[in-house]
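Subject: Re: docking follow-up (zinc ion)

Dear J.,

Thanks for your patience while I sorted out the input files. As discussed at Tuesday's group meeting, I've set up the holo structure prediction with zinc ion included as the bound ligand rather than trying to dock it afterwards. The sequence and the ligand SMILES I used are pasted below, so you can double-check that they match what you have on your end before we go further.
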Amino acid sequence: MINVNRDKANTPEIKKNYRIPKVYDALEIVFSNKCYLCETKKEASVNFDVEHFKPHKGDEKLKYNWSNLYLACSNCNQYKSALFEDILDPCNPEHDVETLIIYELSDIYDEPHFYVANIDIENPPVALQTIQNTCDLLEKIHNGHDEKSIKKTAQLRLNIQNKAITLTNAMLAYYIADRDSDSVAQQKAEKTIKKIVSRHSPYTMLMRSIAITFEYLFD
Ligand SMILES: [Zn+2]
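The structure tokens for the complex came back this morning:
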């Protein structure tokens, strides 16, 4: 999850249908064309949907309210459903989803994991339970919770793994170029790393957890 700014897009006019190109266009700008939960890019091969952050349960005010519409892949949309109502909101400036959660991909062949960051328990910036719920949801989305969902989420883990391999290769190329004082190769590697850790790329937070020594390249 990354923090996003809803003001980046003009509010689209929504009448009795929110699944319209204008809404999708605006959501793509706000969410960098990614699922707000798993950070998969909206591409032809993945089904995406308009997600209601607060389940509307038939309430038209919530159903057609632009600020309640989020961009999610259909997998995350199904997972979240009404089970996870109390989670961090990446559109809320008070919910810093980039620092309240620890995104972990300790080994590129491991499952990704999500933990509540070290925060002041006495005076948490957001209710601890809300952060924990978000971590629980991200765990389920990425790793599944039973035989069927473990299978269903395998492609996401594979996509993350492939991206992580490209990133670690670029990091290795950087270190070799550094050792050899090859500034051209070094710049080329930096450019690749910068692109992968960008907030507009897929799986930003997991990639950043690997490339923490390249923090100066984060946008
Ligand atoms: Zn997703």
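A couple of observations from a first look. Residues 87 and 133 are 6 Å apart (CA to CA). Residues 35, 37-38, 40, 72-73, 75-76 surround zinc ion (CB under 6 Å).

Let me know if you'd like me to rerun anything.

Best regards,
T.
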